[in-house]
Every structure is written in structure tokens, then in C-alpha cells.
Amino acid sequence: MSDTGSTPAPDGSSSPPAGTVIPQAGEIRSARIESLRAIAALAVLVGHVVAESRALGATQTTATGLPLVERVLFGGGYGVFFFFALTGYLLYWPFARRYYGGGATVELRRYAMNRALRILPLYYAVIFVVLVFGAAVSAGTWIRFLTFTQSFSAATIGTVDGPAWSLVVEVQFYVLLPLLALALARVGGGSARRAALLLGALALISLAFRQHYIYAPDFAPPIWRMNMPTTFLFFVPGMLLAIARVELEEHRPPWLRGGLLRADLWLLATVPLWVLLIGVSYDLDWLLCVAAFLTIGACVLPLRPGPLVRALEWRPLAALGVASYSLYLWHVPVLELLLSHLSAPTSVAGLAAVGVPVAIGVAAVSYLTIERPFLRRRRQWSSASAPSAAAQAPSAAGRVPS
Hints:
Layout: E1 21-24, E2 27-30, H1 31-54, H2 68-74, H3 79-100, H4 108-133, H5 139-146, H6 165-187, H7 192-215, H8 222-225, H9 228-231, H10 236-250, H11 263-268, H12 271-280, H13 287-300, H14 307-311, H15 315-322, H16 324-340, H17 348-376
Antiparallel strand pairs: 1-2
Helix pairs in contact: 1-2, 1-3, 1-15, 1-16, 1-17, 3-6, 3-10, 3-13, 4-16, 4-17, 7-10, 10-13, 12-13, 16-17
């Protein structure tokens, strides 16, 4: 889950209105982006409420027989792929600005330190607690989880804390991104449009892997479902938005006018995509790439915000987004702990009524005691490593998190 970004003023000025931002450990974040994080984290939480109460396991195919409402809620698990798109935008933005917009060079040491301070403290805290207080595990399990290699072993992938598999993919993306950004610039001859085409080609290759290893077989091996080759396509929408922002800061194309300038229409256009994905077939999860592009684009490109986009500036929702990483990593251990202390079978509604507020409370405490102290240490170099508030929305010169 990436963690930076911002929103410029609707009139294009460099300073965003006070109502569009929210502080995070002394840094300014886009309220809209943090709200998107909150919605994605809550969606994943609710999806796992259904999975845990129905004992569905990790695969989407087990949910095909659920009632419609529970099937829709279970589909909230796709929020993890939305986080990937946010990461793609936020982390690629400084590289896109550097190679295609004349921005400053990205200092890789600061980039790496910021990523480490953002991800590692909370991850290790959660893994340590779950491993110590859970069932006895081998030394090999400890080593794999401490080195982010659990997703390369059938014995540990998706275990201990289910959502942690996506952190392994995120770390892979962090390491790959500087090399990928350089390769796109070199192979594309410094052209933003050629870079976008190359990214599209890479997304199609990832989709081909997904088709072969996930959609086609009756059972998708977890090692393929939860690793970079079959998930890279979900980072691409955000990366394409970073390139689009650079281009739009230079000049607005003639076709971007009228209704296409209304950000709320971009959000409404995602509704049929979600209906197809969650209501028709989970094998259409590639549609999330389009939905993520439209949703994040509505918040970070220089479009005219309407009531729907402005609703994402609601401060309580944005505040939850600030703690969304804690919510994401703690919610499954919380739900499992609650279920272990309930003597009778628990309904989806019953587990949600207890589990959701408890998970949010744990996330708030976790953010204040674990995340925030380390995030404050980033302030000494944050301006040179990752996108700041100005990266999460359009600005006068020419943005989103995860």
C-alpha cells in the first residue's frame, strides 16, 4: 500500500483548499485519496467478514453459491487490487515527472528509506504478534515471513495473516519500479506516450499469465494467484495516470471537454464495471483496472469535481484512510480472535456488528502507537523521496496513494 499524494486547488493553484487535505504524522495528505484508501480497506474487511463467518477460505470460486448480498460483500476483497493501483500512481509519479516532465531526479536512497519506514515497522509488529500468540510454527516459517519470501512457498503462502501476501507483492514492486521506470524511458525514447504503450503491453502479458494460471484452471495455485506475474496489471492503471497527469499539465487535449471534464461522471462510469465483476463473474477481475483508472483519475486529474468527488473529502472517512494500513493488516487476526471466543455459529451480520468496530478501534491504536512514530521520522527527507500532498491531485503544472 503506497502512502503519499495530495490534491491541488480546483482553480489550479499550488495550494489546495483546507477542506481537501488531512494531516498524517505531520505531513499533508489528500483527503480524497485517504478516503479511497478507507473505502478499499473497509471493503477488504467486509469481504473477510463474509469469508470468516462462512469459512470460505481464500479462493473467489468458493463464493459462487452465496446469496447476492453476501456475494457482493465478499467481492470487497478486490479492494487489494485497488490498493495496487494507488501504489502504481503514487510511487511512479515522481519517476514520470522526472522522465517526462522535467522534474527532479528521484534519490533512490531516500525512496528506499521511505518505503522501509512506511511498510516494515507495522508489518513486523503484526507478524510478530500473530506468530508468537498463534499456533506453534517452524523456524522456516519465521524466516520466510521476516524476509518477505512466504509467498514463494506453498507451506506459508496466504497463511498466518492472509492479507500480508499483498505486502510481498508491494515490496516486489518497490524494488522493480526504479528499474522499470528507467527501462520505460530508455526503450520509449523519452516519450510519455510510448511509455504508456509499453505499460499497456506489459499489462497484457500479465493478463495472459492470469488467464493461463488463474482463470482457465479449476484451481489456481496460490503461488501464481499471489505473486507479481499475475498481479502486475493492477499496478498499471495508476502508472498510466501518472503519465497522463504529466501530459495534462503540459496541455489539455481537445477531446477532454464537456462531460469528460466532470469527475463525477468518471465515478459513475465505474458502476457497470463493478456490477459485471461482482454480480456476474469474478473472472472479470481485469475490469478493476478500468474501474481503478476512472476512480483514481476522478480524484487526481485536472477535472471538475462534483458532489460525489467532494464527498470523498469527508474528514472522518479520510481519517480512517490515514490508519488504513493498520486496518488492513490487523483485521483478519481480530476477526479470527473474535470467532475463537464465540461459542455458537456467527452470522455475517453478527460478526460484522462486532468485528468491524473492533477492527477499526485496533487500527486507530496501532496507527498512533506504531505507524505514526516511524512516519514522523520520514519528514527529514520526505520531499525528495515520494509524492507529497501535491502528488495526489492536479496542480498548476500538471496526481493518488495506496
